[in-house]
Design goal:
By secondary structure, the protein is α/β, with parallel strands linked by helices. It has helices at about 5-15, 45-55, 80-90, 100-105, 110-120, 145-155, 210-220, 255-265, 290-295, 325-330, 335-345; strands spanning about 25-30, 40-45, 60-65, 95, 120-130, 135-140, 170-175, 190-205, 225-230, 235-250, 270, 280-285, 300-305, 320-325, 350-355. The chain is about 25% helix and about 30% strand. The chain is globular and about 85 Å long.
Length: about 375
């Protein structure tokens, strides 16, 4: 099994195109065609983790946070980033990061793992991503339309929320004239041909376009396939920042803080005053203070995240309970999430969680 095979599994869950513009997810160090001897999963691929991978016979480190966010101009080991990259290169260790693209997916993402541990139901994206959806409109002869619709659905087109193979069809008449005298299927030059056709419309995410278009061309009976594509501004219900859901029963503030502490293994919670009970919970792994307006707009009773600044706590104004549990603490279960995705697909392959603590923050 090659490193690229491991990457393909991860990117089927969290495509790189879903990462934020500032991010640097993907293969940072290494050759994707190298045979993979084992995977070490971590939050931060620091130098100690690279050394651990070498000791355990793993030549691929899968991290949540990219070790390199911006370009490196020198490699002389003057800081931990350069030392980590140099150590990985010397040891033939590949480093792959799956960061905000894993944050931004509803299913099998960072936030869904937090929600699962808190017991939330009815979960949905807190701030949906826009500009990532497209509509494909194509035309197929009546007797081939069902085969084309099925091929598009199998390729991933028409997936909307809890439904798939969604499409809309209308019947009409396709008109064309053949200009190739050597092809009898096109008729004589100048002869207009009419065919009863279905107009087929499907929605799909942009990152799946190549696969969907290949499926269309393979299934369509015409050698020249008529189609057009449009960008949509619709919010993508399954992709975006943060998540919101409901607890099975309302809780007091004290009960909810205890739930967060126990289920998310938070040694310390910074929180605001709140007079009500907690039922609707918004959350965001990592730095989520930018989503406070969304949590308020959707009437969340509590918002669990990290990295709130002092003055940002005032913005709650008693309307919800802010729970800042720390950056590492909010994302620590991502390691188990990643390992689970890989183990499901490669149950006999070595996928190991790091034993190195990479949390740079300590509490006294």
């Amino acid at each position: 099994m090659k490193i690229r095979d491991i990457i393909a599994i991860l990117e089927s869950v969290a495509p790189p195109s879903l990462q934020e513009s500032y991010d640097n997810s993907g293969l940072i160090v290494g050759d994707p065609d190298t045979e993979c001897t084992g995977v070490l999963v971590c939050i931060d691929s620091i130098e100690a983790v690279i050394e651990e991978a070498q000791r355990k016979g793993c030549n691929l480190v899968v991290a949540h946070h990219p070790i390199v966010f911006s370009g490196l101009k020198k490699f002389n080991g003057k800081n931990y980033v350069e030392r980590t990259v140099l150590s990985a290169i010397r040891g033939n260790i590949a480093i792959y990061a799956i960061h905000t693209n894993l944050d931004n997916v509803l299913h099998r993402g960072v936030n869904s793992e937090i929600a699962r541990r808190l017991g939330l139901t009815g979960t949905r994206i807190l701030r949906s991503m826009r500009g990532e959806l497209r509509t494909l409109v194509t035309f197929a002869p009546k007797d081939a339309a069902e085969e084309v619709r099925t091929a598009l659905g199998n390729a991933g087109a028409g997936a909307i929320g809890n439904y798939d193979f969604c499409s809309f069809s209308t019947e009409g008449t396709g008109v064309f004239r053949g200009n190739d005298l050597s092809n009898p299927n096109r008729g004589n030059r100048g002869e207009v041909h009419r065919e009863t056709e279905d107009r087929i419309e499907v929605i799909y995410p942009k990152h799946m376009e190549d696969r969907i278009m290949n499926a269309l061309r393979e299934a369509h009976p015409y050698e020249e396939v008529a189609y057009y594509i449009q960008d949509l501004v619709n919010p993508w219900q399954e992709v975006g920042a943060g998540l919101i859901g409901e607890l099975p029963e309302p809780m007091s503030v004290e009960e909810f803080l205890g739930l967060v502490r126990d289920k998310l293994k938070a040694p310390m919670i910074r929180f605001t005053e709140f007079e009500g009970t907690v039922r609707t919970v918004a959350l965001c792994g990592g730095s989520g203070s930018f989503l406070l307006p969304d949590a308020l707009a959707q009437k969340a009773d509590a918002f669990v995240t990290a990295d709130f600044k002092y003055h940002q706590f005032f913005d709650a104004e008693g309307r919800l309970l802010i729970c800042d549990i720390g950056h590492y603490e909010s994302e620590q279960f991502t390691m188990e999430l990643i390992a689970g995705i890989l183990s499901e697909n490669y149950p006999k392959f070595a996928v190991i969680l790091t034993e190195t603590s990479t949390n740079p923050v300590h509490y006294f």
